[in-house]
Amino acid sequence: MLAKTKQSEIKRASSRASYKKEELFPIIDDLMMAHICFIQDGSPISIPMLCWRVDNLVFIHGSRGSRLIKQLSNGNKICLSFAELNGWVMAKSAFHHSANYRSAVLFGEFSVVSDDATQLRYYQSFVEQLEKGRWQHIRSPNAKELAATTLLSMEIDEGAVKVRTGGPIDDPEDMALSVWTGEIPLLRQWGEPKISD
Questions:
Q1: Coil, helix or strand for 23?
Q2: For the range 10-15, what are the long-range contacts, defined as Cβ-Cβ under 8 Å and sequence gap of 24 or more?
Q3: Rounded to 5 degrees, what are φ and ψ at 168?
Q4: What average pLDDT does the segment 119-127 reach?
Q5: Residue-range domain boundaries for the chain
Q6: Which of 2, 15, 153, 161 is most buried per CB count within 10 Å?
Q7: Would the pTM count as exceeding 0.85?
Q8: Residues facing 99 on adjacent strands
Q9: Quick one: pLDDT band at residue 197, thresholds 50, 70, 90?
Q10: How far apart are CA 96 and CA 173, in angstroms?
């Protein structure tokens, strides 16, 4: 279970909230992109980044000299957020129009993965999540590339998941209005690879 604290507890529409890691993990694994939020010089910053999960760890990587990596390497508290829009919910009233979605917010801090062998193992897990079996056919990162890149990991401990599914929730007095209601699903799927060579 995710730790539920004052900062991570969902109060509005709390019936849609979950603190179960088995509901969180598919969101991270499916999206593999998060917004990383932190405070720099008193101002809020949010940067979208590719990420991936291995067991109870979430990983990001970037240029050793980048602003983001420098900020996250020093133990700053961060917020990591994920969101997926799955469709519009069309209601009888403007007020009750909504969206179906999956979302998650995590709180914690990143730490540097410094051992080269450990870095390679986690980079392999990233590539293998993109296409199973690919790692054995590609060139591994060399010493120069490893030196130029910082791999960060964060334990998944505190946060919350929020999901909305289903149709509209209309007021009884609006039911007689002659307008259709229901869902407009947003459908996504991976296409066939466009091979360049």
A1: helix
A2: 10/160, 10/162, 13/162, 13/164
A3: -75, 160
A4: 98
A5: 14-168
A6: 161
A7: yes
A8: 88
A9: confident
A10: 13
